[in-house]
Fold this protein.
Amino acid sequence: MMSEESAISALLEMRADACRVKDVDRLIALYAPDVVYYDVVPPMRFAGLDEARRNFVRWFGEYDGPIALETRELVVAAGVDVAFAHMLHLDSGKRRNGLQTSIWVRSSLGFRRVGGRWLITHEHVSVPIDPRTLQAWLPPEG
């Protein structure tokens, strides 16, 4: 029998796989209908599946090809019907403007068991900045 933490980790791997190949239908199926998603782009708060879907389509459209999404420092805490996770992602790929980019992203997610399956009910994404320059921290070259 899979532990609740393992079930959440598996859901997060499905989420990352859907993002890598930009499969918005497979991705949005992991979210609850009343999801609230906070992102770094305006309007910064996306509520419900339709708004979340539009935001994912926008994000996927910024890339020419797949998105590399490496998860680090994943921590999951799960109860019977509620769970929480946080992690770092290295988000990399070729942008539509031709630039190859990599950026660190912090993610925190809340989950609720709905109809016997885990769904993402809350997600908060942020980009760390260098407080001296107010520029996004980028991974070191090499």
